[in-house]
Amino acid sequence: MYPTLEPFGEIILLEKFWCRRAMAGGRTGKSRIRYAQQQQGEEEQAVWWEPKVSVTELNRYQPLSLWGKLQHFFSPLSVGDLVATWHPHRPGMICKRILGLPGDQVLLCREQAERFHLPPHQRLLVIPDGYLWLEGDNPLNSSDSRDYGPVPTELVIGRVLLRLWPIRKRAWFRRGEPPVLPHTYGAESTVLPAGYQGQMIVRSIPPQPTTRNKQ
Prior knowledge:
Elements: E1 11-15, H1 29-40, E2 47-50, H2 55-61, H3 66-74, E3 82-86, E4 93-100, E5 105-107, H4 110-115, E6 124-126, E7 131-135, H5 145-148, E8 151-152, E9 156-165, E10 190-192, E11 200-203
Parallel strand pairs: 2-11
Antiparallel strand pairs: 1-9, 3-4, 3-9, 4-7, 5-6, 5-10, 7-8
Protein name: Mitochondrial inner membrane protease subunit 1
GO cellular component, one term: mitochondrial inner membrane peptidase complex
Subcellular location: Mitochondrion inner membrane
């Protein structure tokens, strides 16, 4: 999970209660599709508002208030959260970022489609109910869902909230897209949100506060 987390020597705090009881938009693909379409408005509109923003962009102009931290703590499991889970194929724990929830669609390359036994000429993998699509923040050096597929939610240990050690680093982990790193643009998977039907995606970014120039 570099650069968000170092491989060794860091102590983190996990939230284990709320993250196991709810997901943003619902726990099933059908419920998340209905919720997403309601949020978007009319189904026939040609624009899909996409709120995903990299955590590196959030840190520049949107400091997390105390109320925002409490909302994060009590909120359902969402895309952009960091989670600690048990590895699906071997003993041990891993820490990854959620890029997809049930009902979301992952655009796969040909090798991945063959690995996951999709029908010929099908490149979209729909994340099934009870599963998450997890990826590391350094996509060029990460073993994640691109290798072993969606991860069962029952393997989730908790949501990563705070860094307790070392204290010199930022303590609170932000919810958002993976950080923007040099030479890694496009290396992460493309995940289409539940309910998306080919509309033009418009990136929705929180407004940046403006400052007045001193005369």
